[in-house]
């Protein structure tokens, strides 16, 4: 993970560190790790396709073991499906589709933190 990705995810990391153990923390972790993997799609040079495929498989397996609210679990599954398709690998689009389920499942602060990552991803995509 590069410095820019770490900077984009700092608000989520702060929430994750402050969250008590349980479904809320698991949900924040699932969002954070998914956002991290999604933002890494914007790295230059890009990851090799085989490495990306393996990384996504490991991500799905890790998130599947977490206690996450049903709306967020469905949204994450949709994000993983989108990330598996080369044409659907737009980091801002994948992350923005998680906004409503994150707000519903984890609250306004988590949605705002994810929103910052979405805005940063959009800035990177246009440069």
Task: Describe this protein's structure.
With 127 residues, the chain is mainly α. The protein has one domain (3-126). Helices cover 76% and strands 0% of the residues. The protein contains 7 helices and no strands. The protein has helices at residues 3-18, 23-39, 49-64, 70-84, 91-96, 99-106, 108-126. α3 packs antiparallel against α4. The chain is globular, with a radius of gyration of 13 Å. The model has no long low-confidence stretch (mean pLDDT 89).
End-to-end distance = 19 Å
The low-confidence parts are none
Please state roughly what percent of the residues sit in beta strands, choosing from under 5%, 5-15%, 15-25%, 25-35%, 35-45% or over 45%.
under 5%
Please state the overall shape, judged from the principal axes of the Cα atoms. globular
Query: Could you estimate the helical fraction of the residues in percent?
Result: over 70%
The total count of strands amounts to 0
Q: Number of domains in the coordinates? A: 1
Q: Give, in order, the helices and strands.
A: HHHHHHH
* Main structural class: mainly alpha
Give the rounded overall mean pLDDT. Answer: 89
Radius of gyration: 13 Å
**Main sheet makeup:** none
Helix run count: 7
Describe the SSE topology:
Blueprint: H1 3-18, H2 23-39, H3 49-64, H4 70-84, H5 91-96, H6 99-106, H7 108-126
Question: What's the short version?
Answer:
The chain is built from seven helices and no strands. It has 127 residues and is mostly helical. The longest helix is centred in the last third of the chain and has 19 residues.
């Amino acid at each position: 993970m590069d410095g820019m990705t770490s900077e984009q995810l700092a608000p989520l990391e702060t929430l994750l560190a402050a969250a008590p153990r349980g479904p809320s923390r698991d949900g924040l972790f699932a969002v954070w790790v998914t956002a991290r993997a999604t933002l890494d799609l914007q790295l230059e040079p890009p990851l090799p396709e085989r490495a990306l495929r393996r990384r996504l498989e490991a991500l799905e397996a890790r998130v599947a073991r977490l206690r996450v609210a049903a709306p967020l679990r469905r949204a994450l599954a949709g994000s993983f499906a989108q990330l598996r398709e080369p044409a659907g690998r737009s980091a801002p689009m994948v992350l923005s589709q998680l906004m409503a389920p994150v707000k519903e499942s984890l609250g306004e602060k988590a949605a705002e933190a994810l929103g910052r990552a979405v805005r940063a991803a959009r800035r990177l995509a246009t440069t």
